[in-house]
Amino acid sequence: MALLKDKIQNRTARVGIIGLGYVGLPLAVEFAKNGFDVTGFDVDTSKVDDINAGRSYILDVKTEDVAATVKAGKFRATTDMSSLKDMDAIDICVPTPLRKTKDPDLSYVVKAVDAVKAHIKPGQLVILESTTYPGTTDEVVRPALEEKGLRAGKDFYLAFSPERVDPGNETHVTRTIPKVVGGCNEESTQLASALYGAIIDTVVPVSSTQVAEMVKLLENTFRAVNIGLVNEIALMSHRMNLNVWEVIDAAGTKPFGFMPFYPGPGLGGHCIPIDPFYLSWKARQSGFECRFIELAGQVNGAMPAYVVERIGEALNTKRKAINGSNIHVFGVAYKKDVSDMRESPALDVLELLQRRGATISYTDPYVPVLRHADLDLTSVPDEKAASGIDCAVVCTNHRVFDYASIAKRFPLVVDTRNALKGLTGENIFRL
Ligand code: SAJ
Question: Measured between alpha carbons, how far is 66 from 53 in angstroms, rounded to an integer?
């Protein structure tokens, strides 16, 4: 332990990052920028080639930072997992999606752990960052890594530390987001804390890997449930002829005990729609039904259909039907100012409209081409999106759109994000 601690202190520890996506790449560059020798591991050769050519493919990671660290010989990427044997610390940052049955899919974690297991050396520190249910590190990762007889916490060290990367957030970056760390024992917690402490301002050690795993799931379940609540408030406000956006803004003036969430077309992204179901799955193994998580999932999951219902209502005011109308969607990414389409509710809205006979089109400068299930569309330049459109729909409120112009150009606008806030007109319909 002392040897690794010294290597971390004097930054001679060799750091391996498995999974060079929106979590792994920023982490790798941060370690390299702080003087560590970093090797990135990924199965995707295009990612490996980009990095070794000094190019970034992640919005929040500057190409010049990748280029500088690669040029300085501090950072390289490879698909060859055998180099794991040379690492002092290994961070696993691979996806943890859901299966179609809404059960956790740990296949990426297992694959990464198998690679670590094949090359594990005494004294190494292994940290899992992938969001997962409490118990994964102890019940899945640890037994696999101990298969060769080495003991976690003694011969090698093992911890969990949840990723808190917020794509597109320029205020909270890797260095400034507090890092929760939970080891399989005190030494593991101390070593993982020292490693992150070398690149992150605040480290928050907790008593076990299970606590660290649960922290992340609480954070994101909190969001999913509150988004579900505010979506339900939006549905009832519409019934009660109340402007839910005005209500939320006024409630938001309360300086304590309230945190505004906003209605929308549904829940997108690779975290919030997924993470709570990791928690409910695990709780169910202990015979506990997570009713809030299930209910929030139902309410959020029904929002795309509700948006289509509201589009139908808006068309009705012009004695039109969805069937046969030309409907144009502004913004298809899962949230504003990002290009990520994963779980985007706009996909469901477009598919439902198409299925009901609408002719659909979209504008999203972050998503030039949209191919998904029965959708095969190309983004129409904003200025060209007007002629013959019966109804425009704002699904994702990218800052780049000119909403005053949208409010003027289209006979009907259904606004699912209050992007046209402050604009009035008979043609504007808000959630
Ligand atoms: N959404 C709403 N109403 C809201 C907030 C979000 O409908 O009030 C929708 C978004 O449009 C999106 C989905 O929910 O479709 C998720 O949005 P998000 O703001 O939670 O953004 P994410 O998915 O990028 O979540 C990440 C998470 N970060 C990590 O998991 C490390 C989350 O924990 C962050 O709190 C969140 O970013 C953030 O704060 O932006």
Answer: 9
| Architecture of the domain made up of 208-301 | 3-Layer(aba) Sandwich (3.40)
What pTM, to 2 d.p., does this model score? 0.93
**Residue minimizing CA distance to atom 29 of ligand 1:** 164
Supply 132's token pair: 């997962």
Interaxial angle between packed helices 209-239 and 275-285, expressed in degrees from 0 to 180 and rounded to the nearest 10:
110
Count each helix (H run) and each strand (E run) in the chain, helices first. Answer: 15, 15
pLDDT in tens, 4-46: 999 999 999 999 999 999 999 999 999 999 999 999 999 999 9
Minimum-distance ligand 1 atom for the alpha carbon of 345: 15
**What is the 55 CA–ligand 1 centroid distance (Å)?**
27
Q: How far is the CA of 189 from the centre of ligand 1 (A)?
A: 29
Q: From the CB of 167, is ligand 1 less than 6 Å away?
A: yes
User: Which pairing describes strands 369-372 and 375-378: parallel, antiparallel, or unpaired?
Assistant: antiparallel
**Which residues, 6 or more positions from 15, have their beta carbon under 8 angstroms from its beta carbon?**
28, 31, 36, 37, 38, 39, 87, 88, 89, 90, 91, 195
Work out whether strand 359-363 and strand 428-430 pair parallel, antiparallel, or are unpaired.
unpaired
Distance of CA 197 to the CA centre of its chain: 24
Exposure of 253 by Cβ count < 10 A (0-12 exposed, 13-18 middle, 19+ buried)? Answer: exposed
CATH topology of domain 2-207: Rossmann fold (3.40.50)
How big is the chain by its Cα radius of gyration, in Å? Answer: 24
Residue 272 CA, ligand 1 centroid: distance in Å: 6
Q: Regarding beta strands 157-160 and 179-183, do their DSSP bridges make them parallel or antiparallel, or are they unpaired?
A: antiparallel
Dump pLDDT digits (tens) for 136-150.
Answer: 999 999 999 999 999
Predicted confidence (pLDDT) per residue in 406-428, tens digit = 999 999 999 999 999 999 999 99
Is 271 an active-site residue? yes
CATH architecture of 303-431: 3-Layer(aba) Sandwich (3.40)
Is 234 close to ligand 1, i.e. is its CB under 6 Å away? no
Residue extents of the structural domains in the chain? 2-207, 208-301, 303-431
Q: Is 223 in the pocket of ligand 1 (CB under 6 A)?
A: yes
Tokens representing residue 99 in the block:
């299966």
CA torsion 294-297-302-307 (nearest 10°) is 150
